[in-house]
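Q: Predict the assembly, please.
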Amino acid sequence: MSVAFGTIVELGEMLRSRQISSVELTRECLQRLERYGPQLNSVVTLMPQRALAAAAQADRDLAAGTDRGPLHGIPYGAKDLLAAVGAPTTWGAAPYKTQHFSYDAEVVARLERAGAVLVGKLAMIELAGGMGYNQADATFTGPCKTPWNLNYWSGGSSSGSGASVASGLVPFAIGSETDGSIMNPSAYCGDTGLRPTYGRVSRFGAMPLSWTLDKLGPLCRSALDAGLVLNAIAGHDDKDFASVQIPVEQPDVGTTSRRWRMATVEGTGQKLQAEVARNFERSLEVLGALGTISHAMLPKFPYDAMVGAVIAAEAASSFRDIIQDGRVQELRDPSDRIGGYSYLVVYAVDYVDAMRQRAALRSSFAKLFTDVDVLVAPTFSTVAPPIDIPFDKAYPGTDDGALITACNLVGVPAISVPNGIGAHGLPTGLMFVGRPFAETDLVQIASAYQARTSHHLEHPSRFMM
Amino acid sequence: MSTRRFFLSYALSAAGLLTSVSRGVARPPGGATPTPNPTASSATAPSPLAKELATSLQRGLPNAKLSEAITAKIASDIQDGFAINKAFTNVDNKNLPPPDFVFSADNEHRP
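A: Predicted assembly structure:
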């Protein structure tokens, strides 16, 4: 097995059997990040000093019999919207290129307590896309590329997290999602990405874009790995007003005989690229062995207006300073440079009504999950778009539908797993959506899918050296 | 992901007001945001109200040094934003629950 593409579980076994040390593993990641990061535009800052010190400590602890759990000694990367001592936290945006914090984000602190080793800060779309980008080149680090084909985008806004995991630069990474930013790079890069329930993971120390939508979660190489990382980062934190006190259950992977009640979502299977549709149909054939598959209707709500009002109002508040003083015009994407100004004149009543609609939507989703354990859908309707074409011009006639936005408005969890190869040799994604705080369900069913398929074991050949 | 532009094209084409933008246009992927796209916005002529709001921003935010060209783009963007308002206008919201904002009078008793 290549160390570069090992899962957390596999690497953990190697660490504990002394086949490799955390320092050696960390050096390997640092070297690969240094070598391949510039090709992908996936890295902002390497943190060799902090990483090697943490890895050495992890090795000493293991030698002394102290095992902090599954992540002990495992390197990882953090989206550059997470504060971390020892490196700038740029939020992917020119106005914040030299920004430093004197503390670690709660997620970074929890991972450190779990023995994980932070090796670097990974590229992201400027301000997590908060000002409304329309092209891959919407970050001061340049367009991040999917390792499957360097002419195509990695997805965003957790771009570097997606590309770095898929290219074997780090075993896992932390990303964030406000409205699709974990699911998107997971699908476009062929990662397994988990978006936790809103409130499950503390956002303290993370760039606030939209307080009522923002979530943090892992991008990994398997569903089981995603469950392990979630376990380490989840839990109540007084420093985040939305944080909840609901324990994460350990997924019972591999031994469950549960019959799943799955449902496809009406409308999300339309306007797909042919290869995406084909891979989805094949996925349903696999899933058919795991339970029943019915059809569900997505409740009718003005999803785009809702998310538009919420993000505009909250992002304008969050970034009011750089909008007002003009620094927002230093952003890379022309759309980003002007987006914040129109946010300033969003009607307050529209924001309030959007929030009222969200409360109603929550009830509708509760009903939806009465007879269904998980929703299943293609993560996106297309493969990654080219890096040199505005997104809205890349694949005319396709439509991602409203599922991801609806789920983000409600705050329910989702996991995206690779389910095949589509156009241009690029991966496609399969998404499972669960009830609030039912991440364990998602890890279990995604693991069952991955036990029956090998898409998550395929890697881009260019990076397998 | 969700984009104001997509929403606008959907809403306006559904209303028969904008035929030049396909309903089936791909939503800009991966973003966390409505996407005010200046190219797309050029299909929508800004109304006098949108222009006035943009001009008031230009006047009210002198430090931003908004040029005439930028202000014109902002006006188009504001015009796009009106589609969000339109989606909530004349919608019966009497039976909707209150917004899920939580405010407490002191920090000790926050839910």
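Chain A has a mean pLDDT of 96. Chain A has one domain: 3-300+357-463.
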